[in-house]
Amino acid sequence: MHRRNIIYTGIQIAWRLILGNIFLLISNLILCILSFNLKFTLLTSLVYLIASITIFPSLVALVSYLKNDEVGDKVIAGAKYYFKAFSSAFKTGWINSLMYEIIIIFLLLDLVSANKLMKNGQFFMPMLTLLIVLSIIHAMWNILIQSYFYVDFKNSIIFATRLLIRKPLLSLLMIVLIFGDYVSLKIFPQYAILFIIPLTAYVLWKITQKDFDDLKEKVVIKN
């Protein structure tokens, strides 16, 4: 009986991950259409930048959806909850999307320039790579924060920075998750694309669930 419960729970989680991925793709539909129909160039980069403002709020909504047990594996209830969370997160989330994208693109361009133009590029490359990784981890902390709490843009940045500094082990685990995602996409991209983002979101929620208790007195918790 216990084994059956484990199998059923596993199937239920897998189904929710698939649903979460579908909701994520729908909320980023414009970006998906552009990626298949418009070649990324310097001229089209602004179009992609504007279209990608849905990424951050959609990831916030994804984590909110996955950690809500009340909707279970129900499609309609799950969709309603996800897109309500997406609408709420979009109010400040689009600014976060632009901020992280501009920072990471700027650092990537610097990384390429350091590699091609500078004689001492080998010194700057590790530093720039570290800044890119830290920016991604900061964004991951910020996504988790906004899936739990009602916070404005300024406070979300402050809280994410504090957690990045005070939780080095969890931040390191986030790097391991990112590397695992990269390896999975390289080995079996056709399968990983179906669940890799929601699975990462689910694992992030699980490993950080207890660590948000220290913020409960400072912000209003989402229901």
Q: What does it look like?
A:
By secondary structure, the chain is mostly helical. Helix content is 80%, strand content 2%. It has helices spanning 2-27, 29-37, 45-51, 55-66, 75-116, 121-148, 153-166, 168-187, 189-208; strands at residues 149-150, 220-221.
Kindly summarize this structure in a few lines.
Helices cover 80% and strands 2% of the residues. The protein contains nine helices and two strands.
Q: Layout of SSEs?
A:
Blueprint: H1 2-27, H2 29-37, H3 45-51, H4 55-66, H5 75-116, H6 121-148, E1 149-150, H7 153-166, H8 168-187, H9 189-208, E2 220-221
Antiparallel strand pairs: 1-2
Helix pairs in contact: 1-4, 1-5, 1-9, 4-5, 4-6, 4-9, 5-6, 6-7, 8-9
Keywords:
mainly alpha; two-stranded antiparallel sheet; 2% strand
Q: Proportion of β residues?
A: under 5%
| Structural class label | mainly alpha
Mean pLDDT: 83
Strand order of the largest sheet: 1-2
Specify the biggest β-sheet.
2 strands, antiparallel
Helix content: over 70%
Q: How does the overall form come out from the CA principal axes?
A: globular
CA-atom Rg in angstroms: 18 Å
Note poorly predicted spans.
none
Q: Write the H/E string, N to C.
A: HHHHHHEHHHE
Q: How many beta strands in the DSSP annotation?
A: 2
Cα distance, first to last residue? 33 Å
Helical stretch count?
A: 9
